Amino acid sequence: MAWIYLFIAGVLEIVWAFAMKQSHGFSRLVPSLITLGAMVASFGLLSLAMRSLPLGTAYMIWTGIGALGAFAVGVAFLGEGLSVARLIAAGLILAGLVLMKLSAQA
To answer: Fewest CB within 10 A of the end CB: N or C in the chain?
Structure first.
């Protein structure tokens, strides 16, 4: 269950990052509330995952899912640029996540 909690927590990190962008500095109510709710849920699920997963593994996977997801959302929905260098950077993050998962004890 820890890995499922961690994956959902990572997806919620993407949600709150996107909602925060849409809140325009917390000046719009609905995106601000979505940001705060997704943050609380994401942290809560991360804490559940950390009951059995090592700190470094859980935190790296959580932030990596959020980073890659936010990158993808930015490109797909916000018109952010896509370059070879950005794709290589994302690929390196993904490679680190895969290696961390393969080397995890729990």
So the answer is: N
For the whole prediction, is pTM greater than 0.90? no
* 99: containing domain: 2-103
Structure token pair of residue 15: 């949600």
Return the SS3 of 24. coil
Are 23 and 36 within 8 A, CB to CB?
Answer: no
d(Cα 45, Cα 104) in Å, to the nearest integer? 18
In the chain, the amino acid numbered 81 is G
Sign of the torsion formed by the C-alpha atoms of 25, 73, 15 and 46: negative
Of the chain, the end-to-end C-alpha distance in Å amounts to: 11
Copy the structure tokens of residue 21.
Answer: 């962008």
Number of domains in the chain: 1
Over the stretch 43-95, which tens digit does the pLDDT of each residue have? 999 999 999 999 999 999 999 999 999 999 999 999 999 999 999 999 999 99
Q: What is the CA radius of gyration of the chain?
A: 15
